[in-house]
Specification:
There is one protein chain. It is built from seven helices and no strands. By secondary structure, the chain is mostly helical. α5 runs antiparallel to α6. The longest helix has 25 residues. The protein is flat, with a radius of gyration of 23 Å. The relative contact order is 0.12.
Length: 162
């Protein structure tokens, strides 16, 4: 018995093969490159915000007093804490050093910003939080100081077993 394929099914099979081939090529992109890009992208958002605060400190404090109005904390102290977080933890993200730890204060800041300051900007906050949660749960990737430190200790442990 001979099975005859219609021209439509032949075309769709060829199209499907092309899509599968394209997907397989895209999957060859190393995850470490994507993780590095994610760390830099979300880190840059916070780092640039910290630079703005440092470059215009009086304006930053005024923002915390008049617009942000973070509850339960003095505006000047809130500005100092935010600036410290924004200038410290993104650098750790960029380097991939203590990366999982560095995501936690930034996730905390996103939570405060979302709840108390700009709840209408939830799509941006969701994007930033998603990236940070991915990094927290999956790690910084192979292009990170954390990865090289882990490899170093793995070699030491492996040498100790022989």
């Amino acid at each position: 018995m001979t099975i005859v394929q219609s021209p439509d099914s032949v075309a769709s099979t060829g199209l499907r093969r092309r899509f599968v081939s394209l997907r397989e090529h895209l999957e060859r992109l190393p995850l470490g490159i994507i993780q590095l890009a994610m760390r830099v992208a979300v880190g840059a958002v916070f780092f640039n915000s910290g630079l703005l605060k440092i470059n215009s400190w009086e304006f930053a404090v005024k923002l915390f007093e008049d617009e942000y109005k973070v509850p339960f904390i003095d505006p000047a102290l809130a500005a100092k804490l935010a600036t410290f977080n924004e200038l410290t933890f993104p650098v750790l993200l960029f380097l991939g050093l203590a990366t999982r730890f560095a995501t936690l204060p930034l996730l905390g800041m996103i939570t405060v910003i979302q709840i108390f300051i700009y709840p209408q900007a939830w799509t941006e906050h969701l994007l930033w939080a998603s990236i940070l949660i991915f990094i927290l749960t999956r790690g910084p990737g192979t292009l990170s100081v954390d990865h090289f430190i882990e490899r170093h200790f793995d070699r030491i442990r492996g040498a100790g077993r022989t």
